[in-house]
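Dear colleague,

As promised, here are the two records you asked about, laid out in our usual form so they can be pasted straight into your sheet.

NAME FIELD: protein one
SEQUENCE, THEN STRUCTURE:
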Amino acid sequence: MTRVAVFGAGSWGTAFSIVLADGGNEVTVWGRREEVCEAINLRHENADYLPGVELPPTISATHDPERAVAGAEVVVLAVPSQTLRGNLAEWAPVLPPGAALVSLMKGVELGTLDRMSEVIGEVTGADPGRIAVISGPNLSREIARREPAASVVACADEDMAKRLQDLCHSPTFRPYTSVDVVGCELGGAYKNVVALAVGMAVGMGYGDNTTASVITRGLAETARLAVALDANPLTLMGLAGLGDLVATCSSPLSRNRTFGEKLGKGMTTEEIVASTRQVAEGAKSCSSLLALARRTGVDAPIAEHVDAVVAGRMTASDLVRAFTARDTKAETD
């Protein structure tokens, strides 16, 4: 039984802990709030994020980072992307030497424009062969209910990817391996921005033609940036690209789509943030992804306009008018 530490007791960190436990591992979750950890230990439930879901007995929780990583061979990071660097700087001194470091986060850091694997490497000094990302169509509540799903484990070291694949392969969770860390991370981060745009369309009452158009053009925009940064274009056609994009844009369980719906109905970003404890990563990462696209010389109209709406410089209705008024061109340009 492999010991795994999961840093982050939110919905995705908890759901992935279930996957790991079902795969035969002993899991210790680090939680920011002691009352959440106590509920996991005493009632085997994280009622704040996954109410009604019984957690396996091989999952425990602690607020102490050193206890969380004691004996761990794998450390999974599942905190909001924009808090990773600060949190990891505190945890780095207690991380086991040689442990695999796995990112479940989907974002690009503000300011540095670093992907999460790059932040992990910079803060911990770990080489790329120890750093992996897991990305795919994995809505946390469905994963926690053990509905069948697939995902991608990406690492520069293929042997490490295969080892982690074995650890999280459960009766209802099927992982595939990849060495394309860049493609998996950009697919996971960009789909949140596209989901915000889709949510705005839904919030304004538009139907399937509109949302399908946004999803398709969003995939093209994601692929342009990923390929410019040396990703494999086939990654964007797979689970970490198209699969994740479809799930996030289509499901009412998606925080980013829900956030976008509220923008489409006229709420401001500040009003939405004040009404929920859940983090919509796309609202945080749209400006950093836009900056990354501009630095790379890639046209990114969806990221540009979504960023303007999130920042309050444009309304959702303005966004629709701006999209349809753009110059026409060949689809493959």
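NAME FIELD: protein two
SEQUENCE, THEN STRUCTURE:
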Amino acid sequence: MTTTFGQGALASVKSNRGRRGSHALRWWVLVVLGVAQLMVMLDATVVNIALPAAQQDLGFSDGNRQWVITGYALAFGSLLLLGGRLGDLFGRRTTFMLGLIGFAGASVVGGAAGSFGILVAARVGQGVFAALLAPAALSLVSVTFTEKAERAKAFGIFSALAGAGAAIGLLLGGMLTEWASWRWVMFVNVGFAAVALVGAVLLLAKHVADERPKLDIPGTLVVSTALFAIVYGFAHAESAGWTGPVTLGFLIGGVVLLAVFVVLETRAEHPLLPLRLVLDRTRGGSFLAVFVIGMGMFSIFLFLTYYLVVSLGYSPIKSGLAFLPMVAGIVAASTTLPSLLLPRVGPKIVISSSFLVSAVGMALLARLELGSSFATHVMPGLILLGIGLGGVMTTAFQGATAGVHHEDAGVASALINTSQQVGGSISTALLTTVATSAMTDYLHSHQPGALTVLHAHIESYTATFRWGIGIFVAGAVLAAILVPNAALAPSEGEPVVAH
């Protein structure tokens, strides 16, 4: 058996001989991984637009509707760390391909669903296989691009797809629902998965296992249960309030289990999550930055979509098109800042200043009124948000995997996805409460009438945007305190079988 010999800097004192590093087909590998990442990110929002049509077709209630979204989030969020570690233990190529096949299969089941139960089960299945797929894709980027300059460019492209995917999902969901059927928001995943699977078979090298894989079973069970409880607790709070026994029980139980998990990991011989990954200031600060991104991005997509549809009367397709300036900002920042700005000013400055740019964009949206126009009032804020978020994401993704040994690349990548997922769950529940409270207060303090109701809606949206300003400013301050302004070390290549 022979192994490939890559170039690339090392993440440790170990030699990189016999490990995957930058190689001739690396950019085609990035295309394959990018397609898979785009598919996963699309599914975070593409179903939202199609939900009303699916509800009418399958006849489920408003109360049950949230489970189409929550089922995916619960499975995805609670199993990410396990999925990432399985990639480290059994090979990222294997888990990546298994994730693609399973995700496509669950999408077919969902698209053909004849009942609400089957649709929810399919969404849970998508979440399970996305938990394999997402960390495998990101960790493959990390171990494939080990040269500093190329690594920055590769992470920039990958981050652009990650940031733009949710916005593109809104547009694609609107187009498929309006022009075809809600079922096609599920079936379309088969096309993405097929392209990525063919590319994976042709391009991804097989992993070499140096030793017998070992899985931290107690840690896996505890952290999966903890993450499930936390995500479910916030989802339940969104619909049932924060003071109910179910909400409090799940949230408190999840936090306690996380504390138990930390204790277990300090004592485990082969921990699921080696604490050295998060105790490093660069990586710890980057994970926290991704968490803040999750909180901010989900609020933008959720409440700005409400504003466009309810207040401006946009169609689903037009609402999706409205987010394209933000996509352009994300792509521009993600693909230029790593090479132009990051080497000159360092990660602390890039992350902190990018958060502040995002806060300015959010401040512009917080000034929206009933008569605001898209071109002069909405679009400038979206462009600034895109530039800011793109700058944070591309730097934080690199920082979170900086200096990671190949055997930890999967779980580090999973922690990135977990941070974003939990951040989104928290902000969706928290800001829904903020919006509801703001609308209620406005209605109680003004004369009843149709115009008052319209203004109350605006007040509910802008209240969440004002919170968004605070979230992004807090992110800037935390990054300035935690993230050292040192060059980001590359990851270590992984051992692979030569083609």
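A couple of things worth noting about protein two: The first helix runs from residue 26 to 42. Residues 216-271 form one domain.

Best,
R.
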